[in-house]
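Table S2 (text version). Query chain:
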Amino acid sequence: MASAAEQFAANLNLGVFAKATELKKRIWFTVIALVVYRLGTWIPLPGIDTQALADVFQRQGGGLLDMFNMFAGGALSRMAIFALNIMPYISASIIMQLMTAVIPSLEQTKKEGDAGRKKINQYTRYLTVVIATVQAWGIAVGLEGMSGSQGPAVMDPGMFFRMSTIITLVGGTMFLMWLGEQITARGVGNGISLIIFAGIVAELPSALASTLELGRTGALSGFLIVTLLVMMVVVIAFIVYMERAQRRILVQYPKRQVGNKMFGGEASHLPLKINTSGVIPPIFASSLLLMPVTAAGFAASSGAGGWLADISTLLGPGHPVRLVLYAALIIFFAFFYTAVVFNPVETAENLKKHGGFVPGIRPGKNTADYLDFVLTRLTVVGAAYLTLISILPEFLISRFGVPFYFGGTSLLIVVTVTMDTVAQIQSHLLAHQYEGLIKKAKLRGRK
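Corresponding structure-token output:
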């Protein structure tokens, strides 16, 4: 009986999808935009010797630079026009959110509705240009000092190469930022998240192939590879479970009499997710750690030493300082971003305005304190979950020599973005189905 019902629902969804022309246009737009992004990751910067650069990256691979390269969809190792990817925009978003929480004028601007959000977004774009310019300058200088067994990575170093590199990389980042906004507005899902998702998914097959090749040559044992595959399935299931887990707080609405009829008296639930902050904390933490490590790595490759080399060593994979900083940043951003997206005082006031209350808790301040208490405990569990998932690849790389970032931020992004995108597609299908029912009802009413 259940299978028949599921088959009927599947046929209904297929029928609705076949008629949802608007949704199909959105999906095609998203696919084409991601294809354009992937093509850009294969276009190298002008003046780069790609073979010499590949040799340098092969000798200096490992650590956070490989993780950055994974987020960029391999564009960093190929030094493509999208080598910076969307990371400068994410860094700018971090800084703007921190400044919004600290500076009262920016906080007031954020509360001005759509106009305030547009101003904050514009400030974020300006800051993205500044960060991308600084990072592009560092990459250009670092590239000039890179040299491998096949010669220098830059064929004609100098100011012209630096300026062309800065213009190209900053332009690539701004194009990706615009492309992400277009996907969000005209496609399906969050554009920025989908760009990162596409980069990770594109690199996973080659990473798995290299792992299997190491197993064939005997560098990794077959038992370890099978264990990794089983662990990957377990981690995916764990992520799905934790992302769907929520605490449902009972909210009661009092009965009220209007004329001779009684209204209200129903109960509903206020859902609070265990991981309210989503994938933002690991991405923010990775972005902040990547900036000094990238600068230190390029400086070391150009012959500079001293404290930059020490930073590169301290923030290497598996180093205790690196793990402690990474975990601390994830926990901080988990609490910070949860406080940004959920305001217990505002939620309590909205419940009070609509006559809702939590049984056993007085409306107003007591409800706000109760919601804050529950949310804090949930965030502790959510931050611990994010930290565990994110540190897993660090342990595998340092302990077993796994050649790619299994689990952690990559799997977290892939799973959560997939879930969010599927949920948006389902909401579009449901809205289209309701529109069809409303049109049929109107036609019957005219008859």
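Notes on Table S2: The two ends are 37 Å apart (CA to CA). DSSP finds 16 helices and six strands in the chain.
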